[in-house]
Specification:
By secondary structure, this protein is α+β, with helices and mostly antiparallel strands. It folds into four domains: 167 residues, FAD/NAD(P)-binding domain; 123 residues, no CATH class; 95 residues, D-Amino Acid Oxidase, subunit A, domain 2 (D-Amino Acid Oxidase, Chain A, domain 2); 69 residues, no CATH class. The chain contains 13 helices and 18 strands. The strands form two sheets. Strands 3, 4, 5, 6, 11, 12, 13, 14, 15 and 16 form a ten-stranded mixed β-sheet that branches. Strands 1, 2, 7, 8, 9, 10, 17 and 18 form an eight-stranded mixed β-sheet that branches. Helix 1 packs parallel to helix 6. The longest helix has 24 residues. The radius of gyration is 23 Å and the shape is globular. It starts with 12 loop residues before the first strand and ends in a 22-residue tail after the last helix. Bound molecules: flavin-adenine dinucleotide. Flavin-adenine dinucleotide binds next to helix 1, strand 8, strand 11 and strand 16. Keywords: FAD, Flavoprotein, Oxidoreductase, Plasmid. Its cofactor is FAD. One of its GO terms (molecular function) is glycerol-3-phosphate dehydrogenase (quinone) activity.
Length: 511
């Protein structure tokens, strides 16, 4: 079953065009479709394949927001009150996002125990205790922090304790319950499919090429199918530019002189297999080379992320050997017991953070100020805050015009993704067009350790049957997938089946 041609959209009109089906675009498409708006959601690649698929997968509980306030005197807090209030606001937002995801999508997030080691001379435990009290006062929405402060001799149950550096400086640790997404790109597929069920028109591999202001104040937008090259032009009242780190590029399709809004930074992470006792446990620490985060994800641990200024096309961001070695060195400096080497790295990924220029947080930009009324973009929006961003944008749209149709009911049931090639017909329903679409974003098996050459062949055959490919076309798809794996994941699948992963999952710190 192949995808309907983009040409079928020629001449159609929509209330809102959403550019980009990452965490922010897909959540906003669902929210607006539910509110009765006629939505067109397009992504130049697959749903969730952009920065969202490169995140550290953390649904932070707010400690990070309060980090900036740690170690300061009461006087400093009072003199910097506006900044402190911003930190509190951000922490409250993160707590609300954590509770929202955990209650609305319990199958897509899971609790893990995060440890922050304490060393003599660094941030004191009492300061983190204060932050924990503050977070509890702000409200955890029924998903407690399970905060504990442990002395050095009480760490027997903490898997990272044996591996930590400077044992003599090690004064203890704090632990708390945080949530991880494990698989944020599947959330994007879920939300895009929910938007479609609610009446939105949803297309992957469809790029916005150019946008022209129409005489009625709306936009005429030229779209291109990135796989077969076909084109269409649509009319929309409002464009929401949610293209992550590509936001400036999208705005420039409307005006080459529009000011840049993105402050891009590149982040690289490596994935390693740690012993089973580390599953459901993560570690966060400050190092002299920046924040160190080690988070369980799909049977592996993601370690990172680097943080370097990025210019250029975010699609070209890849993990270099130097960056991989740097992360290994950083890990071994903090956790000498891990003794990690290059051969332990199962894959390495790079992403570009779509930070806001001149501001640390999320900013909604109304481009009317740039002479582009009816164009709105969002910078600095994370996966964690994406559902709140969607609600802010729904309110923004509602202030401008009414929905074409009545609002719909509550959230539809989440689709139940099945892993493996046997579910290929279902993948076709979910608009999967390449092998990577199936194994990374519909079934997710490529993120795990047991994905191997045999599974790749079976997936390619099933997708080929579903799309009517001949054997040569299937081989071509396999070669393209292997090249993508090599470039963007620094991973070689080899030709033999892999050993099944021995790491099993269990739930930590249930609330
Ligand atoms: C290393 C790293 C670690 C991170 N860790 C976390 C974390 O732990 N927790 C967290 O919440 N956030 C984290 N983030 C931030 C988070 O990943 C991003 O802020 C978030 O994914 C942005 O989502 P988005 O939907 O705005 O953008 P994206 O996911 O990038 O989606 C934008 C989409 O727009 C599409 N697009 C671009 N141009 C066009 C066009 N012309 N036409 C059509 N479509 C187009 C792209 O294909 C893409 O799919 C991290 C980011 C990085 C890089």
């Amino acid at each position: 079953m192949s995808e309907p041609s983009v040409e079928l959209l020629e001449g159609r009109s929509f209330d809102v065009l959403i550019v980009g089906a990452g965490a922010n675009g897909s959540a906003t498409a669902e929210a607006l479709a539910r509110a009765g708006y006629l939505v067109l959601l397009v992504d130049k690649s697959d749903f969730g394949s952009g920065t969202t698929s490169r995140s550290s997968r953390m649904l932070h509980c707010g400690f990070r927001s309060l980090e900036g306030a740690a170690g300061k005197s009461l006087w400093q807090h009072l003199t910097q009150l506006p900044d402190r209030l911003k930190l509190l606001k951000s922490a409250r937002e993160q707590l609300a996002a954590r509770a929202d995801f955990a209650s609305v999508m319990p199958a897509r997030v899971r609790p893990v125990t995060i440890a922050i080691p304490l060393f003599r001379g660094s941030v004191g435990g009492w300061q983190i205790d204060m932050a924990a009290v503050l977070l509890s006062l702000l409200g955890t929405g029924g998903f407690p922090l399970d905060y504990r402060r442990l002395k050095a001799h009480e760490l027997a149950d903490l898997p990272f304790a044996d591996w930590l550096r400077q044992r003599q400086d090690f004064t203890g640790a704090v632990t708390f319950c945080d949530y991880v997404f494990d698989w944020p790109e599947r959330i994007c597929v879920d939300q895009a499919m929910a938007a479609e069920q609610l009446g939105a028109c949803v297309r992957n591999y469809t790029a916005v090429e150019t946008m022209f202001q129409s005489s009625d104040g709306g936009w005429t937008v030229a779209l291109r199918d990135e796989i077969d090259g076909t084109k269409a032009t649509v009319a929309v009242r409002l464009v929401l530019n949610l293209a992550g780190p590509w936001i400036d590029k999208v705005t420039q399709t409307a005006s080459s002189t529009a000011p840049q809004r993105i402050a891009a930074s590149k982040g690289v992470q490596i994935a390693v297999a740690l012993p089973e006792r580390f599953q459901d446990h993560g570690l966060v620490a400050a190092t002299d080379k920046g924040a160190f985060v080690c988070i369980p994800s799909q049977g592996l641990h993601l370690i990172g992320a680097t943080n370097s200024k990025f210019t250029g096309d975010p699609s070209d961001a890849v993990a270099t050997e130097d960056e991989i070695e740097n992360l290994l060195a950083r890990t071994n400096a903090l956790l000498p017991g891990a003794g990690l080497g290059r051969a332990d790295v199962r894959y390495a990924i790079a992403g570009v953070r779509p930070g806001s220029r001149g501001s640390p947080g999320r900013v909604i930009h109304d481009h009317a100020a740039d002479g582009l009324p009816g164009l709105v973009s969002v910078t600095g929006g994370t996966v964690a805050t994406s559902r709140q961003t969607a609600q802010s944008l729904r309110r923004l749209v509602a202030r401008r015009f009414k929905a074409s149709r009545p609002a719909k009911g509550e959230r539809l049931d989440l689709l139940d993704p099945k892993r493996g090639a046997a579910d290929a017909p279902r993948f076709a329903v979910e608009h999967a067009r390449t092998i990577a679409d199936v194994v990374f974003r519909r079934g997710g098996e490529a993120w795990t350790t047991h994905f191997d050459a045999q599974m790749l062949q079976a997936t390619a055959d099933a997708l080929g049957r579903s799309n009517g490919w001949d054997p040569a076309r299937t081989d071509q798809a396999i070669a393209a997938f292997r090249a993508e794996l090599d470039k963007y994941y620094r991973r070689d699948l080899g030709s033999a089946p892999s050993e099944p992963s021995e790491i099993s999952r269990s739930t930590a710190c249930p609330s």
